Amino acid sequence: MTGPLPELGPLFDRLITIAAGETLPRFRMGTAITDKGGAKGLAYDPVTEADQEAERMLRIAIEEAYPGHGILGEEHGEKPGTEDWRWVIDPVDGTRAFVCGVPFWTTLIGLEDDAMPVGGIISQPFLDEHWLRLPGEATLYRQGTNLTPARVSGETDLGDATIMVTDLRVGEYFTEDEARAVTSLTKACRLCRTGLDSYGFGLVASGHMDIVVEAALNWHDIAAVLPVIEGAGGVACSWDGAPITQDFVRGRVILAASQELADAAVSQLRDVPLP
């Protein structure tokens, strides 16, 4: 593990400003959409000019600040680094929401040290909401100029919990077995909301929701989120209860406000067969 980096807070601020400069002018403006679903075995997987240009500009800024760092991005692949540090970028997480004009997409920027996520930001520029975790520090929530600590709810009872799942339909993110098991889990909770994409992760960090369950995620979907959730006092694990790493099985994740909630979800999901 290498030592801490200077000026990370200002750099994260600069990065989300750069990303917003590419995403916001194209949001709700009829930007061009390309469907890359066929290549990934999905019915529909949109990518926009906002995704591509935001990541391109973020890469330039990171390379200028730390030329020896690696970069992994959803749209432009991986650039190996010469140091232990690597940035993981999802310029528009929730592109379906983006193209529908729904402000629940976010820009995710994560920072790894020796393959371990140690910092990250969940940024929703249209609503001006941002959840930031710097290495070794607690997660902070910022809206406008207001900066406050972000804390999970601490809820421990599944029956009193609010759960978020992006899409319960079979064939979107879940197999039939996965969808059946997750639907059963949602029925054990007090309230379920769908369609929030990565914005729901921030709501867990701020204590407004209690648990998120997803599958078919990629590393760029979650690398920035893990430090944010854990820095707010939350728990992150895979469906079998194991820590989430780059090799997590089929992108299955649980993000919860307490270990008790995570354990309750694991008890219902750990035996769901893999496709």
Could you please describe the fold and organization of this structure?
The protein is an alpha+beta fold and 275 residues long. Helix content is 30%, strand content 26%. It is built from 9 helices and 15 strands. The chain has helices spanning 8-23, 37-40, 49-65, 95-99, 176-187, 199-205, 219-222, 225-231, 259-269, and strands at residues 33-35, 46-48, 70-73, 77-79, 85-93, 106-113, 116-124, 129-133, 140-143, 146-149, 162-165, 191-194, 211-214, 235-237, 253-256. The strands form 3 sheets. Strands 4-3-5-6-7-8-9-10 form an 8-stranded mixed β-sheet, sandwiched between helices. The chain has a 5-stranded mixed β-sheet with strand order 12-11-13-15-14, with helices on both faces. Helix 1 runs antiparallel to helix 3 and helix 6 (199-205) runs parallel beside helix 8 (225-231). The longest helix has 17 residues, at 49-65. The chain is globular.
List the SSEs and their pairings.
Layout: H1 8-23, E1 33-35, H2 37-40, E2 46-48, H3 49-65, E3 70-73, E4 77-79, E5 85-93, H4 95-99, E6 106-113, E7 116-124, E8 129-133, E9 140-143, E10 146-149, E11 162-165, H5 176-187, E12 191-194, H6 199-205, E13 211-214, H7 219-222, H8 225-231, E14 235-237, E15 253-256, H9 259-269
Parallel strand pairs: 3-5, 11-12, 11-13
Antiparallel strand pairs: 1-2, 3-4, 5-6, 6-7, 7-8, 8-9, 9-10, 13-15, 14-15
Would you count the extended β strands for me?
A: 15
Instruction: Please tally the helical runs, counting DSSP H or I stretches of 4 or more residues.
Output: 9
Termini separation: 36 Å
Q: What would you call the quaternary organization?
A: single chain
Kindly state the percentage of residues in helix: 25-40%
Average pLDDT over all residues: 93
